[in-house]
Design brief:
By secondary structure, this protein is mainly β. The protein has helices at residues 2-23, 68-75, 225-228, and strands at 44-55, 59-65, 82-85, 88-90, 94-102, 107-118, 122-129, 141-162, 165-185, 191-215, 235-256, 265-285. It is rod-shaped, with a radius of gyration of 37 Å.
Length: 288
């Protein structure tokens, strides 16, 4: 009798539990987690490499005599009062480093600073044959040499970013190592006057460019050297920019060679300015 009562009680409990479970709402799967796509920002440090094409146009060299005999020679075009040197070439390699700050991630204004140094190795000689001397004596040869070994620019940048594309203007300091050389000869080819200058010189630069950021999962990152060096970077960027530089002018005393040149000599004023087109890539670090 007790067994029958226990069985009946157990059965009733199971039926009541099943009925209660049937009334409960079904368990729904959890909603998917939404992960927003990170918005790109140009804010952060960057560094990279570049190659440069440099070209100069009408770098003037003006010469004036010091004593009366030298002044007369310039007036008679025996020594050139004005000449110019034009040169162009590809820089072997260069590098850049800087920092950007973007006010609004995605699209918005960007300000920053950049320092670039390029090995330009521009060297050019200029030979000018002066007018014949009095009495039909042969003309005087004159030789000038001008070079720009390397050029650096320390500039501020202001631009606007369209997500991963940024256009910008730049302006600031230009600096580099210049070499000027002037040699004036007698009609017979003997060196009569000589002068040179080899030193650091500063000026200004301005220009503009465009830069494009490539995601780290892009196939172009296969060619990124930093990737194989174990460096972690946010993006690889490629750039192209134009810069005009002006290092100003410098007077060079072209002094008389004792026993050969007559008078106190000459002063030749060299000017260094030109344009360059840079193309390169940067690694961007530390975006936030």
């Amino acid at each position: 009798m007790m067994k029958k009562l226990l069985l009946a009680s157990t059965a009733a409990t199971l039926v009541a539990t099943a009925a209660t479970a049937a009334d409960l709402p079904r368990r729904a799967p959890p909603p998917p987690v939404f992960t927003p796509v990170p918005v790109f920002t140009w804010t952060g440090f960057y560094a990279g490499f570049e190659s440069t094409y440099v070209f100069t146009d009408r770098q003037r060299i003006t010469t004036a005599g010091i004593s009366p005999v030298n002044i007369a020679n310039v007036a008679a075009a025996r020594r050139p009062a004005v000449t110019s040197i034009t040169d162009d070439g590809f820089a072997n390699i260069g590098g850049t480093a800087g920092f950007n700050y973007q006010f609004t991630p995605g699209s918005g204004f960007v300000v920053g600073i950049a320092n670039s140094i390029d090995w330009t190795d521009l060297v050019k000689n200029r030979y000018v044959l002066g007018a014949p001397n009095a009495g039909g004596v042969a003309a005087n040869p004159n030789a000038f040499r001008q070079s720009l070994d390397w050029l650096g620019t320390l500039t501020g940048r202001v631009g606007y970013a369209f997500d991963r594309v940024m256009v910008y203007g730049l302006g600031g300091l230009a600096y580099g190592n210049v070499f000027y050389d002037a040699n004036f000869f007698t009609p017979g080819g003997a060196l009569a006057f000589a002068g040179r200058y080899d030193d650091f010189q500063t000026g200004y630069a301005y220009g503009g460019g465009i830069e494009i950021a490539i995601p780290t999962d892009n196939f172009l990152n296969t060619f990124a050297v930093a990737k194989y060096l174990g460096l972690k970077y946010d993006a690889l960027t490629i750039k192209a920019e134009y810069v005009h530089y002006d290092l100003g002018s410098r007077n060079v005393l072209v002094a008389a060679i004792p026993g050969v040149g007559t008078g106190a000599g000459y002063v030749s004023r060299f000017r260094t300015e030109g344009d360059l087109v840079r193309a390169g890539f940067n690694y961007k670090f530390g975006g936030f």
